[in-house]
Write a structure and sequence with these properties.
Elements lengths: L3 E3 L2 H17 L6 E6 L2 H12 L4 E11 L2 E9 L5 H4 L3 E9 L3 H11 L4 E9 L9 E5 L3 E3 L7
Parallel strand pairs: 1-8, 2-3, 2-5, 5-6, 6-7
Antiparallel strand pairs: 3-4
Keywords: Glycosyltransferase, Transferase
Protein name: Phosphoribosyltransferase domain-containing protein
GO molecular function: glycosyltransferase activity
Length: about 150
């Protein structure tokens, strides 16, 4: 069996606070937080509370179909985020992991066309990702078990 990174709920709490602290320490304040569903929902909620940013939106992207199994390219599912809400905004895209980076790149490219500024935050970043996120809690090359997707 492949060695795995296990994220507990306690670790998740630490990760959310640490990411919010990184953003605050950077002196940057998002005007809109965009959660990448499903994995980014928990992290985005945590960061939005910690930074007191109530403008929280969701984008649903399908890419992974199983453990280390994915579609050829990620697909943004409807409804897409509102361009009107993004225009001129400072958007923070939040996801659980930047594995290949393809999902975050898709969302970032969509947002960049409309927003004033776009930054990214993830709990985990893999070494082979095509995206280097501005805010990262931990880097790993292991498969990750998240508490919201694990039965034990």
């Amino acid at each position: 069996m492949t060695e795995r990174e296990i994220l507990t709920w306690d670790d998740f709490g630490r990760a959310g606070r640490a990411l919010a602290q990184q953003i605050a320490d950077d002196g940057w304040r998002p005007s809109l937080i965009l959660a990448v569903a499903r994995g980014g929902l928990f992290a985005a909620g945590s960061i939005s509370y910690a930074l007191d940013v109530k403008n929280l939106h969701v984008v649903n992207v399908e890419f992974y179909t199983g453990v280390d199994e994915r579609l050829d390219t990620p697909v943004m599912l409807g409804p897409e985020p509102s361009v009107a809400d993004m225009t001129g905004a400072h958007v923070l895209i939040v996801d659980d992991v930047a594995d290949t980076g393809e999902t975050i790149k898709l969302v970032r490219d969509f947002c960049t066309a409309h927003a004033a500024e776009v930054r990214t935050a993830v709990i985990y970043e893999k070494p082979h990702t095509i995206i280097n996120c501005e805010y990262v809690w931990k880097r790993t090359d292991k498969w990750i078990n998240f508490p919201w997707s694990s039965l034990t």
